Amino acid sequence: MGRKWNNIKEKKASKDANNSRIYAKFGIEIYVAAKKGEPDPESNRALKVVLERAKTYNVPKPIIERALEKARGSGDEVYEELRYEGFGPNGSMIIVDALTNNVNRTAASVRAAFSKNGGSMGVSGSVSYMFDSTAVFGIADKSLDEVMEILLEADANVRDIVEEDETVMVYAEPDQFHTVQEALKNAGITEFTVAELTMLAQNDVTLPEESLAQFEKLIDALDDLEDVQQVYHNVEE
Length: 237
Prior knowledge:
Elements: H1 5-15, H2 21-36, H3 45-56, H4 61-72, E1 80-87, E2 93-100, H5 103-116, E3 120-122, E4 131-139, H6 144-153, E5 158-164, E6 167-172, H7 177-186, E7 194-201, H8 209-223, E8 228-233
Antiparallel strand pairs: 1-2, 1-3, 2-8, 4-6, 4-7, 5-6
Helix pairs in contact: 2-3, 2-4
C-alpha cells in the first residue's frame, strides 16, 4: 500500500490540535451512527467502527457520551451522507465525504473550496473508481510476524500486512473490519494507532513542489468545512 498511514493521521491530528473541530465532527458522526440502530456498539457495528476511530484520535469521553445520550434521547436532527468527487492540481483525485443537515449549504461550500483552490468538481464515479474501500489497522507493540500469525490463525482475509515507521499496518477488505479487530483483541491487542474504514487510492501520484503547495491548500480548505468528515486523495505527501 505504501501510504504511510500513520503520517497522514498525525498530520491531520496536528492540524486540528489547537481547536475542537475534529471532536465536533466526531460528535456528529457518533450521533448519526447511533441513530442508524441501537446506540450500543455491541449491536451496532457502524457505531462500533466510529467509536474505535474516535479512540485513536483521543476524542474526550464527555463528547462521546453527549453524542450517545443525544441519540438515546430526543435528538431528531436528520443528517444526510454525501460524497463529492473532484480533481486538484495536475489531475490529482479527491473524494470528500460529508454529513449534513443542509445539502445546499454543503454542496455550495465544497464547490467553492474546489474552485477557489485550483480544483474542479467531478460527477459521481469520476474519481471513486480509482479508490478501494479498505479497513486499516495500526499496531505499535507487536512485530509483523506476530500480527501475521494472529491473523492467519483467525483465518482473517487481509490484503496486506506491512511495517511502516515501526508500526505494523494491516490492510483488509472492509467487510473484514470486525473479524480483524476481534482477532487482534482476542490476542491481547487492545490499543490501535489506527482503526479506520477508509478509501485508498489504487495508484499514488507525486506532484511538483508548486502544485503540491496548491493541492495542500485545497485539502486544508475542504477539511476546514464544518460538514466534511473525511477527505481522501491519491497524492503522495
